[in-house]
Amino acid sequence: MKFVMLFVVFFVCTDKVFAQYSGTLYGSNGVNQKGCPAGYSPFTTKADCDTMAAAIVAGGSGTAYDELLAILKLEDNSFVFGSNAVGQTTSFTSSGNSYQGVGCTMNGNSGGNGAGNIQFDATATGPYENSGNNQICGKDTFYKGTLYGTNGVGQKGCPTGYSPFTTKADCDTLAAAIVAGGSGTAYDELLAIAKLEDNSFVFGSNAEDQTESYLSSGNSYQGVGCTMMAASSSSSRGYMFYDATGTGPDADTAQICAPAPAGNSGSNSGDPHLQFHNGGHADFRGGHNETYVTLSAPNISVAATTMKSDFAQKGGAQVVHGTHFTAAYLVVRTNQTGRIVNVSVTAPMTPWFSPYSSVFVRGMPTVKVAFKKSKPAWLKAFALEDVNVTAVANNAVRVTTAGWVVEVVRRTLYKPLTRSSPRHYLNLEYRKKTAGAAHGIVGQSFGFTSKVDGKVDNYTLDDKEVTTAAQAEGAIEGVYTDYRIKSWFDTKFKFSLFDANLTAAGASLAAPVSARTSDLADDGAFSLLLV
């Protein structure tokens, strides 16, 4: 009997420590547990945590208050919010704290006065064991399946690794899967998307009777490619649309996307490490405050600026004198009227402001695209013909064209030294959607017929100090300076393919533009005004 009692006590303690919570707004892996439950992601701004603090202060009841209280009670069901928590006016900010999780964390404080205090820490390493804290995560609005994906109801663009469908026949296939009913991967995944808004949702009678997808053009209710009614009346839920130039979706529809072809992407990350689409690797230092073309293909050019950076790694045992990409500049020509779209993305982030990307089209005002709109005029997405610029996360923006998907992600530099100017940098990923030639430092790898590796820097030595030097030798055509451009939005360099498909009729639409920096944003990102 004594053995049985001990076993029961151990089981109860284990269940308490690892209890998870999954709510409509918030989720948590439990007390002292890092990371987020499946289907949830860390919050990325202090404003997110301030919203939680305000919900606790407001008291009473409501989804936010009730869910945060439920998470607090994971430690002990008798816990209530403490006097300090109900009096907090804002979340507390820390940096690299082992007591906190990445993003927003709620203090358990053994049910005391601080129980319910909310903290924000973008670089936290906890919560560690016995801290009594819960990392608070936000419910994902996106869905990623084997056949289909979506950014969620009312959200433009596609999840990372997915691209819009390109033909009405694709959407007809989706409609047929719904009509067929029963079960199967296609049916089940489309139903899962329909249930993102409400788990009780089922396909409506109109959707189950559709013989094909409905064709529209330039509709603000539809996204580019295939769109499904997801949150409207029960009779229409599941109805499928096709629109090659849709500017939506709206609050009742979800854009349906397809997984990008495997092995059809390339990227650069860190300081910078190049990953070629065929599996090869190389390192690239570039020059201080110099801009290089990473991708050049018909109607698209991507360039990035390298800046010197000094940082520590290996637990601080090794100092690296390297570079990082700190700004990216994209030039895209639309596939119908040939208009030029310029996009700039800079790396700086702060806990207080959502970073934005700037979009300029001749004859139109500059548009600022941000995941959380700090100002009324800012947008979460910009669309013009086949070009879509979407803030898919607070730190990420995705540019989609008829032939390419380019995703730019802002990152925080790990252990920067005081003499290092950049504190943030950019990672870029390039996904090819259609056949065609490409060049640029990374872009040329899409034409490689076998794996090609270039020169890499050696960090494995016991040296306490390393200075990077590799310039992707052996993997790129020519030398690295052949890819350098004189101005941010310049598309011309030795191997440029931007104008390869330009017709005489379209030449007048692609008149050159110049750029100058204008105001410096609150978050440190440049707004570019092109004239």
Note down, in words, how this protein is organized.
This protein is an alpha+beta fold. A hairpin with a 3-residue loop joins strand 26 (396-400) and strand 27. Helix 2 (46-58) packs across helix 3 (63-72) and helix 5 packs across helix 6 (185-194). The chain contains eight helices and 32 strands. The radius of gyration is 25 Å and the shape is globular. The longest helix is centred in the N-terminal third of the chain and has 16 residues, at 2-17. The strands form six sheets. An eight-stranded antiparallel beta sheet has the order 17-16-15-28-27-26-25-24, with no helix packed on it. It has helices spanning 2-17, 46-58, 63-72, 83-86, 168-180, 185-194, 205-209, 504-507, and strands spanning 21-22, 26-28, 40-42, 92-93, 103-107, 118-121, 133-139, 143-144, 149-150, 162-164, 214-215, 225-229, 240-243, 253-259, 265-269, 273-275, 281-283, 290-297, 300-313, 318-333, 340-346, 356-361, 367-370, 381-384, 387-393, 396-400, 404-412, 424-432, 465-467, 484-485, 515-520, 526-530. Residues 1-17 and 503-531 have low confidence and may be disordered. It has three domains: 19-139, no CATH class; 143-259, no CATH class; 265-530, no CATH class.
